[in-house]
């Protein structure tokens, strides 16, 4: 019911334009981006973005959602990461801050351009306009710490094992138990590494 009213809030011409673009994108191959169509509400645009290689997000799959305002395309859509991520330009509620969706917005920029811009943001974050101040500060001052935090959250929330959590529960939680035990093993390995580092530092 709410999805229908959401559609009715938009100009029919705009709806036709969105429908055409979304359906084109669903058949077009965009490297590292897969769009999901919500037939009940075509203004509810969601996509899965693969974490780019060579970044702390590599190997992760991040769900992104675009919400279109009533006066779209005069006003830009809002973009959110539905998957938890540690990134300077992503707020705690998932909202994405990027100039393309703020001061640099132009009505002729399409959904494809927005999704590509979000993917680029994973490659080149902008700490100058940080919504997550901690991530922005770490990126500028202690990149290794920033990278480690971003990798950890990617591992926990964006890996294939995380996205299959529901399936694991249906299978009697066997897979989720395995993930939990694997995590314990990883934690023990990390503890050993920390202790080893402390020993080495004491010797110096």
Automatic annotation (TrEMBL):
PANTHER family cross-referenced by the UniProt entry: UBIQUITIN-CONJUGATING ENZYME E2 (PTHR24067)
Biological process annotations from GO: anaphase-promoting complex-dependent catabolic process; cell division; exit from mitosis
UniProt-recorded Gene Ontology molecular function terms: ATP binding; ubiquitin conjugating enzyme activity
Catalytic-site annotation from UniProt: 97 (glycyl thioester intermediate)
Keyword Flavoprotein among UniProt keywords: no
Keyword annotations: ATP-binding, Cell cycle, Cell division, Nucleotide-binding, Transferase, Ubl conjugation pathway
Enzyme class: transferase
Biological pathway: Protein modification; protein ubiquitination
EC number(s) recorded for this UniProt protein: 2.3.2.23
Region Disordered, residue ranges: 160-187
Domain UBC core, chain residue ranges per copy: 13-159
Record field: catalytic activity: S-ubiquitinyl-[E1 ubiquitin-activating enzyme]-L-cysteine + [E2 ubiquitin-conjugating enzyme]-L-cysteine = [E1 ubiquitin-activating enzyme]-L-cysteine + S-ubiquitinyl-[E2 ubiquitin-conjugating enzyme]-L-cysteine
Family that this chain belongs to: Belongs to the ubiquitin-conjugating enzyme family.
Protein name in the entry: Ubiquitin-conjugating enzyme E2 S
